[in-house]
Amino acid sequence: MTINNLAQVGSHNKREKKAYNSNPAIKIELSKDNIELIPLDIKYVKRFKEMTKEYEKEHSERMKTERSERRKNYNQMLDRFKNVVADELLFTATHKFFDNMNKEDIITWGNTCMDFVYRNLGYTKEQVLHATIHVDESTPHLHCVVVLLVKKYDNRTKTERYTISKKQYIRDKLHLSELQDKYHKRLTNKGYDLERGIKGSNAVYQNTRELKKTTRYYEQKVEVMNKSLNNAMIDFEEKKKTTENTFIDKEYVKVKKDTFKSMNNVIKESKKIIEFHPKMEQLFEKVDTFTKSH
Predict the structure, then answer these.
(1) CA angle at residue 167 from 162 to 169, to 5 degrees?
(2) 255, 246 in Cβ contact below 8 A?
(3) pLDDT in tens, 86-105
(4) Residue 127 burial by CB count (10 A; 0-12/13-18/19+): exposed, middle or buried?
(5) What pLDDT digit, counting tens, does each position of 4-49 carry?
(6) How far is CA 217 from CA 19, 29, 214, in A?
(7) What 3-state DSSP class applies to 99?
(8) pTM for this one?
């Protein structure tokens, strides 16, 4: 993830967005019960800068000897590493897995996941920027954000230099599958009833970031349509109050022109919502499938 992504992930994991107050997927009144395994009381980007200050210092020294057209400040250099300045590891299971677990049980499960991070993935405790278990959604899950900073031997300069490398920890799909085997074994050895996902599955999953982007678009669209319909209803109610006595006979209803226009506006906004409903159903199915696949 980029520095900008890191800031957004931090806002989500620390529940800093005001939008969560109206998000039905997050019970904001339960957010106080979220469990901090590796706590963080500052912003993600600030903590990242603290954790990589030696890397920044090394980069600044190196730039002093670079040609002017090749010089980049620290942030510009980091932008070259799209999606890998840090990594977010997500651990969860089905809702049934957490049935009958109390807070202490969930903490024990979370610490077992962190053992996997240290012993199998190879991250050190100093590389963990933040680790928190969210219990304010339908299924508990652990977010663990790690900084991919390593010191490697550089053949060109014949020295050890800092670099950011995701491949140091997850090399390829085969390695990822092996890690998933080890995670499953680690948890089952601890007595957890956890079923291994299907190996080599060809299912294509929408990228989490893209799914969130799509969901936000639909949320905003629904909010706009609801607001438009609400305004149309308010306008219609006001028009009814000021409308002269309506003339009605066996075949005709006579109302003022602006009242009639207001009625049509309510119908138009209602039709928009009715026509949009199938798209919302498709999105729900997509989100549901995505959730079950994880």
Answers:
(1) 90
(2) yes
(3) 999 999 888 888 988 999 99
(4) buried
(5) 788 889 999 999 877 666 677 788 899 999 999 999 999 999 999 9
(6) 14, 25, 5
(7) coil
(8) 0.64
